[in-house]
Amino acid sequence: MKRLSCKIRSIDRYNANTRRVVLEIPVGETISFKAGQYLDIILSGKHCPFSIASSPDIKDTIELHIRPTPGSDDSVAIEKLLDLAASVEIEIPKGDCFVDAPVGKNLILIGASTGITQMKSIIEFLLPRKPEQPIWLYWGVLSAADLYLTQLCLSWEREFKHFTFVPVVSEPDQSPEWSGRTGLLPDAVVQDFSRLDDTIVYVSGSPGMVYATYDRFIQHGMSADDMFSDVFSYAPRTKK
Ligand SMILES: Cc1cc2nc3c(=O)[nH]c(=O)nc-3n(C[C@H](O)[C@H](O)[C@H](O)COP(=O)(O)OP(=O)(O)OC[C@H]3O[C@@H](n4cnc5c(N)ncnc54)[C@H](O)[C@@H]3O)c2cc1C
């Protein structure tokens, strides 16, 4: 693990609350991480985790997507840092939920809100390696305006014939123009698959959402060892 001070190369707004932040790796330094890992931004000694959105194949920059949590003092401090600072201190890599080769089974990636970030890194690592098994990306958001990466996800569908993108809006009342899938992510997956045998699943979201997905998928035939999430490490429950 390394601690680095990285210059902020750019910050762009995806929408009202989510920003894309690109950090520069200092000249002469190297970074090593696996697709799906995260880093910590160090904030007055406190560690704030953020999934790495870029592929490990990119060596000179790191992309993050940052959306403040309402009511969080740490989020307020992170936003202020991004508004004012020229560089940030990071610790990298973190996390044991990653992909380092095509998985050799059907792969379902599930991201809630900015949980898409972890899945983006995994997809951008895997697609150039031409995996033979199909990949599904389920992206769950509250309102359609939160689907800030739709064009990119559709470009993956065009590029890779075994890749399917399924956006799911959980509060369609907020998005009267939305005509796509609605409801909760685990329900959407279970509607699409008669069984989840022989399927690897990666999930990024809150502990409640991840464990609800886990329980639902076990009932639907998923093997207990076939689901991966950072939640299992940072918010373990006695029985997974
Ligand atoms: C492993 C991990 C990765 C994260 N990645 C991001 C990210 O890419 N972009 C981002 O804006 N925030 C991310 N967060 C949340 C971010 O760290 C916090 O919002 C921030 O540090 C403020 O801290 P907090 O404890 O007050 O807020 P909280 O929002 O309470 O931070 C902890 C919570 O973050 C949630 N979380 C886990 N993964 C993600 C995720 N990918 N996106 C959003 N929330 C998540 C979990 O529900 C956890 O309970 C991540 C959190 C964790 C644990």
Automatic annotation (TrEMBL):
A GO molecular-function annotation: oxidoreductase activity
Keywords from the named record: Luminescence, Oxidoreductase
Alphabetized CDD domains for the sequence: flavin_oxioreductase
Domain of life: Bacteria
The keyword Glycosyltransferase appears for this protein: no
Positions of the FAD-binding FR-type domain: 1-100
Example GO BP: bioluminescence
UniProt-listed PROSITE patterns: FAD_FR
InterPro entries assigned to the protein according to its UniProt record, in alphabetical order: Cbr1-like_FAD-bd_dom (IPR008333), FAD-bd_FR_type (IPR017927), FNR_nucleotide-bd (IPR039261), MRET (IPR050415), OxRdtase_FAD/NAD-bd (IPR001433), Riboflavin_synthase-like_b-brl (IPR017938)
Keyword ATP-binding among UniProt keywords: no
Record family assignment: Belongs to the Fre/LuxG FAD/NAD(P) flavoprotein oxidoreductase family.
Protein name from the UniProt record: NAD(P)H-flavin reductase
Organism from which the protein derives: SAR86 cluster bacterium
